Amino acid sequence: MLTLLVSLLILSGIAALLALFLEIADSYLADYGEKQILINEQKQLVVEGGRPLLSTLMGQGIFIPSACGGKGTCSYCKVKVLEGGGPVLPTETPYLSPEERNAHVRLSCQVKVKDNLKIEIPEELFLVKEYRVRVESIRDLTPEIKSISLRIQSPEEGITFKAGQYVQFEVPKYKRTSGPEYRAYSISSDAAERHSLELVVTKVPQGAVTTYVHDFLKEGEDLRATGPYGKFYLRNSDRDILFIATGSGMAPVKSILHQVEHEQLRKKVQFFFGARTPKDLYYQEELLAWEKTLPDFKYVPTLSRPLEEEHWKGEKGRVTNLIDKYIPEGANIDVYICGSPAMVDSCVEILKKKRIPDDRIFFDKFE
Questions:
Q1: Whole-model pTM above 0.90?
Q2: In angstroms, what CA-CA distances link 106 with 49, 64, 78, 157, 357?
Q3: In total, how many domains does the chain have?
């Protein structure tokens, strides 16, 4: 049995090395020449072949969302490849449903431009722009979360986005990377501010971009961002609103609350926020101020690991407990959830048990 196991491990290693060799050979030896990409039957590009579709489009000023920076782990960069994409790769199959595969959906970071391509992308992606930004300030919100304030240097008109959307933020090459790296971060600032952005960045162990932001980023540094992206924004309805978030999922909710303030929405708005300890709570001054100024707003934080000596008098337990406690069955609400995939899935499951329809539940999973 041991011999068989060792043999399988050796064969797997050989296969992995062979795949790596073929990839390297393809990158350096193959010459695919110029290829054509037809987008949405209306826009035709002539590009140099051989690179991933995601980066090829980026080089042409068409920015497909990619939270992982093109590593094939987030599934944000889906497009329809109608012709020329070749077979679906094993690296794509975990992220594609049977329905998506039948509809020719692919991960653009995994599709190489080896032949002429015919693709479809959402029309709104043609509106995504590249921005030159300058770091104005860096602020600690919690021991693990920083606020990054950016000033838009160009284009002159600034950025137009919907509260709740995100940008892709790029950092330069440094000791942990082989080149520039970018990741997706939600905007926490007011959408009415066209020339500035505030991003909320949680430090991820071994994360290339978050490590740069937390340990190396300096005020006055000039960087690049693209956006806006995302469909996590306020829907037009007469129903009351429930926001649920944990960690940096606070960011898009804060941006939307600015919108609620500007529009003076006359509806009940609740915000359930989950954290571990009091030191993990942030934007407290703004949220408590909104409780006084917004017509019907209630902020309810809950802590899962408060210590006795912290004398926490608020709600205790996970954020999902608040749904059970405060949301009645069949409530006439729209729900917006932002945080880790596990938290989002748990909330959705409880909301469905309370007979909240799928089309009233909106979420953004932070991978």
A1: no
A2: 18, 12, 5, 34, 29
A3: 3
